[in-house]
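In these records, each integer encodes one residue's backbone shape. Here is one protein:

___
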Amino acid sequence: MRDSHADALIGLLIFIGVLIFAIATPFILKAFRKNKASVKSNEVPEPKLVENKIIPLREKLKNTNSSLMGRLKLAIEGEKKSEALDQIEEILYTSDIGPKTVESLLVKVKAELNKSAVQEFTQISKNLKTEMQQILKPFDHSKINWNASGPTVFLVLGVNGVGKTTTIGKLSALWAKEGKRVIVAAGDTFRAAASQQLRIWSERAQVEIFAPENTKDPSGVAYEAVTKAVNEKFDVVILDTAGRLHTQSHLMDELKKIKRVITKVLPDAPHETWIVLDANSGQNALIQAREFHQAVGVTGAIVTKMDGTAKGGVIIGLHDELGIPVKKIGVGEALDDLRPFDYQEFLDAVFDS
């Protein structure tokens, strides 16, 4: 027969164990939910719709400013003036302005160097700024071909990793904020995370997403989305497309098919075809834009990640070499960091000290 004291001790230990389990269970469940949410957020980053305090563009583009102006100053005011032109040429090329544009700019710089002015750096940088103004000024960067008799269709293109899906989310939020009724079509049927990320954006921005589970053909998604927009009187349709390299001819042909298909619903659609480019890609961004433009006719560009690069010159090359106006620039993660492109504000931020 067991000792009564031993039975009492066992009973007490069981009671304490049950009590500890009861107390700890809510904390364990909370930690589990938090960990689960963390894993989920790592799969699809939560979009930022906050409207932060507007930071001056000069501050956002300080990397480009310090790189371009700092290196120009060293080259122009250095001891070996005979090497100045070669150094300036290298600086302009490595700023990803584009070979054709660099050649024309160098003609102006050489003429200024030959003058041997007292304040050469000030004058040459001023001349460079003036020449770039002449390149950017003829374009209407704010113009959008809004459809007056139905929904305006935007076809958005780009390679993987440029921030295309996030940019689409921000565009939808900005236009919804203006009172427009927006529908976003999840045409990237190859990457499940893209559709999921767009869905999160649409919920935050309070816009509708069109992502039919039974339609995996991107052109079919586009056709159905535009049809729905016409029938239900939406103001804006944003067609997302899968990221693709400009060298993938079969995927470029797919974009052409999307354009053909949606004209069966709206003959003049898409009204805008915008390419999203990563500023860090430099010369490769110009190559991408050229190939997409030749394939489907790009009407505008959105250049992202401008705040994280010292190579903002790609904007000049897009205008001068390809005739593609930059419509917006991305300078951060928040909603207000997708900004309308103002060429004068851009040049002031890059050139002024």
Summary: Confidence is low (pLDDT under 50) at residues 36-44.
